[in-house]
Amino acid sequence: MMNRLLRWRTLGVACTAALVLASTLPAEAASSRTTRHATEKGTVTVTEIVRGLKRPWALAFLPDGAGMLVTERPGRLRHVSPQGEIGPPITGTPAVFARGQGGLLDIALAPDFAHSRVVYLAFSEAGPNELAGTAIGRGRLSADLRHLENFEVIFRQEPKRSTGVHFGARMAFGPDGHLYVALGENNQRPFAQDLDKHQGKIVRLTPDGEVPPDNPFVGRSDVRPEIWSYGHRNPQGLAWHPQTGELWEHEHGPRGGDEINIIRAGSNYGWPRATHGINYTGLPIPEAEARSLPGMEDPVYVWSQSPAISGMTFYTGERAPGWKSNLFVGALKNRELIRLELHGNRVVHEERLLKALGERIRDVRAGPDGALYLLTDENDGALLRVELDPSN
Prior knowledge:
Helix content: under 10%
Shape: globular
Mean pLDDT: 92
Number of strands: 24
CATH topology: Neuraminidase
CATH architecture: 6 Propeller
Strand content: 35-45%
CATH class: Mainly Beta
């Protein structure tokens, strides 16, 4: 009897030790959080690094393997360690208009972050009459990753006209060192064509929020000088093509008409006069004239049935040659990851991935380790790492 009791006690201690050890391992070590999926390019492994994020919207990789910064739409910025630990909310972030699609949205690190530690945030900011608009601000991340110091707003979308929708808010630093920001039209369709308003525009700013002197409309008194391009609906993806150096953007269409564009200075991308979509009611867009119009840029790719695209990245890593130079896009409504093969500036093939996960994909980023990283748009949101078998 004593020997049996001793064996049970020993087994209990061993089980307890195993549980403690598992809880201290990086999240990727837990096999219950890893799934494998067959794809056209080979087997893909998806690892849940963390779960428990509240509506995560965007992520940025810190240098030197120091983890990631993740925005949560209700207004929190968090550090996620390389071991998969979620830190407490970082203090010093701005107050946000957390209604509907609004809140704390995109994040970008300054090109000289390793020296300056400056972090840029895009967020929805309240204005008069219960309306809001997109704002961009920056602050310095403390060495202990707990505070955003001296946060200041450097750009405000004017006028503020959103009731809680179509903020856009993707950011990308260009090869020229300037900051490009994609702004939604706040569901004020005609504003996207009005050059005296920021709605439905991509703006180009210096890192300090000033207007670069070579912006296309500088010197015109009837145009907001920050504007780089116009005629956009609700941009949700912004990325630089690694070979051509061109800026690619994607945006939500209405019912049908999600699209990808190549952004050129001073160009008009058509919304709402040119669109492939219709209203959610099934009726035509009142201002729509055609799918294509003279003097307006056509999209390089259109989805006739909208996946509700969000997040976008080009794969430039060496770890997965089968994905080289592919474009990856998240899908919210369709709950999948979309892989696009390119020939020059043409999309020549599309593959839908990870449908079995059933996750709304909000952000897609290529990691410094050669994997893809995804954020899921849920109240119990997750950070996922996606790896293609290196033999493929």
